[in-house]
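Propose amino acids for all 307 sites.
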């Protein structure tokens, strides 16, 4: 049985950060191949489609790059997702706590505001690693298409991380995706999760309900912000080949995609993204609310509920 989010307090912030980090690591390990397929499908241009769908992408990836090709960039992603989930999940709880200090029930607007603030906190920390993850995932695809092999030395990785940091401040690409995602996801999850409570006197929730709530909320939020994710991925991808489209910012990217590929292009990889985000957040929420961090820090049940 998992605890209700409302039972957490600011005193347990270190435990929340541990819970979020472990939750992210477990979740991303399970769904990383789908995330890789999503990135490669989003980067396909009209007339240059190497992959027909998610399964075709995974099969071709295994044939051309081997089994571990499906985990290209996984080390970076694990490094990225640990602070990302730790900050996002813990920050949401923190801001919800701050916004409900008067003892009143959180309004939907305050829940959305808490999610927005959580998304901002996460983006500031994780943007450089996100940039590197996208480029590593795309590298194998470019090699399979006949482009020159992409090699990442320690110097190149440092340069890419600096470039990613610059993009955080110049283009705010992840804010374009992660803030709307958090605004949709966290309030929806909170309301779905609350439906699983046994009673007002017993706010505990079965673990499977936490998983289902995380999956459902993650799926809805992922599809809702898929157009933002497509634009972000296009702008973050590797240098284009001679016949491939280049973009000069968000507005130019949106305009060219609409003109040359149509509105449907903004939903490229949406199903893959939903398949990634749904179980990722379902697993993450279960691990987060089970209380691994509290156990590791030596909290007893009495300390947890009286904190």
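Proposal:
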């Amino acid at each position: 049985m998992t605890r209700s989010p409302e039972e957490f307090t600011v005193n347990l912030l270190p435990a929340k950060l541990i819970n979020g980090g472990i939750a992210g690591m477990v979740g991303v390990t399970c769904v990383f191949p789908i995330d890789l397929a999503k990135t490669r499908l989003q980067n396909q241009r009209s007339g240059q489609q190497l992959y027909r769908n998610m399964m075709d992408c995974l099969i071709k990836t295994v044939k051309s790059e081997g089994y571990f090709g499906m985990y290209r960039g996984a080390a970076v992603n694990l490094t990225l997702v640990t602070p990302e989930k730790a900050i996002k999940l813990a920050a949401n709880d923190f801001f919800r706590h701050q916004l409900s200090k008067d003892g009143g029930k959180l309004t939907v607007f305050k829940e959305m505001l808490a999610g927005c603030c959580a998304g901002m906190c996460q983006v500031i920390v994780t943007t450089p690693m996100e940039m590197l993850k996208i480029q590593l995932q795309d590298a194998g695809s470019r090699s399979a298409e006949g482009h020159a092999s992409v090699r990442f030395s320690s110097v190149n990785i440092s340069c890419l991380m600096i470039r990613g940091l610059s993009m955080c401040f110049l283009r705010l690409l992840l804010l374009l995706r992660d803030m709307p995602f958090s605004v949709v996801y966290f309030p929806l999850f909170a309301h779905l999760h609350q439906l699983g409570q046994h009673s007002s006197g017993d706010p505990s929730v079965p673990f499977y309900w936490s998983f289902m709530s995380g999956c459902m909320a993650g799926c809805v939020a992922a599809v809702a912000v898929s157009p933002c994710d497509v634009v972000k991925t296009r702008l973050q991808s590797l240098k284009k080949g001679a016949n491939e489209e280049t973009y000069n910012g968000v507005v130019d990217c949106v305009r060219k995609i609409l003109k040359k590929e149509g509105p449907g292009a903004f939903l490229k990889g949406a199903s893959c993204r939903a398949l990634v985000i749904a179980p990722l957040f379902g697993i993450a929420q279960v691990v987060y609310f089970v209380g691994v961090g509290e156990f590791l820090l030596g909290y007893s049940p009495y300390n947890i509920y009286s904190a």
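The chain has one domain: 5-306. Residues 5-306 form a domain with the Mitochondrial carrier fold fold (CATH 1.50.40.10).
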